[in-house]
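To: structure desk
From: M.T.
Subject: fold request, one chain
Message: Could you run this one when you get a chance? Sequence is below, nothing fancy, just the single chain.
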Amino acid sequence: MQETPALRKIMTMHELAAGLSQEVCRELAATGYGSLSQTRCFALVRMSRGAATAARLSRWQRMTRQSATVVINDLVARGYAQRQPDAENRRQLMLRLTSKGENTLGAAERIAASAIATRSASLTPAETQESFETLHRMLNAHLWIIGNR
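Reply: Done. Structure tokens follow.
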């Protein structure tokens, strides 16, 4: 079998990200915040950044508008988010977190911080920071590339 170092790097990053995401979702359910898929957890993160609409959420999450609507409807029905008319464009609905959504997102952040700390315990604080900065630069380059296709 041929050596595939580039694909191995991608798989390593994917497995780490997927494992951390799954752990956060599992811990949220175990601690009483409700069972949320990774897609729904990330939708809460996106909504917390403001200016969220169904169209923007579908773009950010790289899903169809119909799939985004299913996610949004579920989050609204379960009390994590709400739709509000945009103050500048009354025809557009903005997505906002409810207090339940904000509390859940806060718990997810604490769980994620703990999971990251556990996995980076063998690194110095400087190595951990450098790793995240490198990943952030790679992500920005990736977003630039896909945005310019």
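Reply (cont.): The beta strands are 81-85, 93-97. Let me know if you need anything else for the meeting.
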